[in-house]
From TrEMBL:
<protein>
    <submittedName>
        <fullName>Branched-chain amino acid ABC transporter permease</fullName>
    </submittedName>
</protein>
<feature type="transmembrane region" description="Helical">
    <location>
        <begin position="235"/>
        <end position="254"/>
    </location>
</feature>
<comment type="similarity">
    <text>Belongs to the binding-protein-dependent transport system permease family. LivHM subfamily.</text>
</comment>
<feature type="transmembrane region" description="Helical">
    <location>
        <begin position="183"/>
        <end position="204"/>
    </location>
</feature>
<keyword id="KW-0812">Transmembrane</keyword>
<dbReference type="GO" id="GO:0006865">
    <property type="term" value="P:amino acid transport"/>
</dbReference>
<keyword id="KW-0813">Transport</keyword>
<feature type="signal peptide">
    <location>
        <begin position="1"/>
        <end position="37"/>
    </location>
</feature>
<keyword id="KW-0472">Membrane</keyword>
<dbReference type="InterPro" id="IPR001851">
    <property type="entry name" value="ABC_transp_permease"/>
</dbReference>
<feature type="transmembrane region" description="Helical">
    <location>
        <begin position="318"/>
        <end position="336"/>
    </location>
</feature>
<keyword id="KW-0732">Signal</keyword>
<dbReference type="GO" id="GO:0005886">
    <property type="term" value="C:plasma membrane"/>
</dbReference>
<feature type="transmembrane region" description="Helical">
    <location>
        <begin position="398"/>
        <end position="429"/>
    </location>
</feature>
<keyword id="KW-1003">Cell membrane</keyword>
<dbReference type="GO" id="GO:0022857">
    <property type="term" value="F:transmembrane transporter activity"/>
</dbReference>
<keyword id="KW-0029">Amino-acid transport</keyword>
Length: 467
């Protein structure tokens, strides 16, 4: 014990040095002048009507379609203005046109009504604004046309899988046209939530702690993926791996520098939970201080690569679920077939009995924190390809993460997976039945409450737990 106390200052110095290095690296990455900075006082930027080079690092993908039959509309003029640029482009035979942009920023798209087919009107916003971040290719600029009787078209969803929701909002759509894309996006969203939820469930099962700072692990992974693929211009897959590794390291450092010392001092679960809330707030505002309050977009190709009826999938809509499924299967294999997995389940079932049988409980908890941080970091990096990243990305979905864990059964990793899929489906399908997008999380929580009334232990939870 004396030796451990003597070693603690050295450990804390290493942790502090790593944190300072991480902050310095982030500041260095963002120390270059912002491309969105305002012009100097008194200067009036000139309007540039010259198209940017086709190899520009960012672009907007304009797509004009008729909502009723999903047909593409060629020869439609669209004016693009913003950042000192004013360009007019014309859609091709596929109804699409790519607009390369020399600078990131917010651009306004407006359709020339005189170039529309007879009897057709623009459904939804026109003109509309599109935010383009550095290195973001093919940012979607969708326009749907109708005869004026098709009703309003909802804006593209910011939830995962939004790329499949461009099939229009016409009231003439069949039920399959409305429901199938929502099922696809809901399953993708559920898988992404499951990665983070399993970490929460494992930490709760082995320590009894409801970690309210877990959302910041998700934010950390999202920001790490953005920095690698955005400012550093490295491949997206490398950013995902970096987020996975750094997330695990962050979880390790959290347990080493904070949670393990508190456990040794015998701090109760309620004070630990309050500490996690304080840590969540501290990390959140550290992220805001370093990255700023603006939304950050991870570069991503928005064009569809696979069309299955009304479902239109981008490359990330295919690769992300595959990554999630593979990782979740590896976690299941580790829990069921490996010694450390069996030890983890033993600690979760009865910590005192596991320690009496010779299991190193602290080692198991440390591994669980590393695994939970890695899964949260991976989840954040993948979420960054579906919605803009910010300092509160993880906090915005933390309630859904806890809802998934509670619905599946507290402390059960497989229950967290089932609960996440249910929550993901409810969130997206609720919009198909007319629930406003800003109320979709409420619908998921209401369904969770209804299910828990009939099954209080959760879908896969047990009525009575030992210990």
């Amino acid at each position: 014990m004396v030796k451990a106390l003597r070693a603690r200052p050295a450990v804390l110095r290493v942790v502090l040095a790593l944190l300072v290095f991480a902050v310095a690296a982030a500041v260095f990455a963002f120390s270059a002048p912002s491309a969105n900075a305002a012009p100097a006082s008194g200067s009036v930027p000139a309007v540039d009507t010259t198209p940017a080079p086709t190899d520009s690092p960012q672009s907007i993908g304009v797509w004009v379609r008729i909502a009723a039959d999903k047909s593409n509309v060629p020869n439609v003029s669209v004016t693009v203005t913003g950042k000192g640029v004013s360009l007019t482009v014309v859609t091709g035979a596929d109804g699409k046109v790519t607009v390369p942009l020399a600078k990131p920023g917010t651009y306004k798209l407006a359709i020339d009504k005189s170039t529309l087919p007879d009897g057709q009107k623009v459904l939804g916003q026109d003109p509309r604004e599109v935010a383009v971040s550095t290195g973001n290719q093919g940012v979607p600029g969708y326009f749907l046309l109708g005869d004026g009787n098709t009703g309003a078209v909802p804006s593209a969803s910011a939830s995962p899988g939004a790329g499949s929701s461009d099939s229009g909002g016409s009231t003439k759509q069949s039920i399959a046209d409305v429901v199938l894309p929502r099922i696809a996006t809901g399953l993708i969203f559920g898988l992404l939530i499951a990665l983070a939820s399993i970490g929460v469930s494992l930490i709760y099962g082995t320590t009894g702690l409801n970690n309210f700072a877990h959302g910041e692990l998700v934010t950390f992974g999202a920001l790490a993926g953005y920095v690698v693929a955005g400012p550093l211009h490295l491949p997206g897959w490398f950013g995902i791996i970096v987020a996975l590794v750094l997330g695990g390291a962050f979880g390790y450092l959290q347990d080493l520098g904070l949670w393990k010392p508190l456990r040794k001092k015998g701090v109760g679960l309620i004070p630990l939970m309050i500490v996690s809330i304080g840590l969540s707030l501290a990390l959140r505002y550290i992220f805001q201080f370093i990255f700023g309050p603006d939304l950050l977009v991870t570069p991503n190709n928005q064009s569809s690569v696979l069309n299955l009826g009304p479902i239109h999938l981008r490359s990330t809509d295919i690769s992300s679920p595959i990554i999630c499924i593979v990782v979740l299967l590896l976690v299941a294999f580790a829990l069921l077939r490996t010694r450390i997995g069996k030890a983890t389940r033993a600690v979760a079932d009865n910590r005192s009995l596991a320690a009496a049988t010779g299991i190193n409980v602290e080692r198991v908890i440390r591994i669980v924190w590393v695994a939970g941080g890695a899964l949260a970091g991976l989840s954040g990096a993948l979420i960054g390809y579906y919605q803009p990243v910010s300092w509160q990305t993880g906090a915005s979905i933390l309630l859904l993460i806890f809802a998934s864990v509670t619905l599946g059964g507290l402390g059960t990793a497989f229950g967290a997976l089932v609960g996440s899929l249910v929550i993901g489906l409810i969130v997206d399908l609720s919009q198909a039945v007319g629930v406003p997008s800003n109320m979709k999380f409420v619908a998921a929580l209401l369904v969770m409450i209804i299910i828990l009334i009939f099954r209080p232990q959760g879908i896969l939870g047990r009525k009575d737990r030992i210990g």
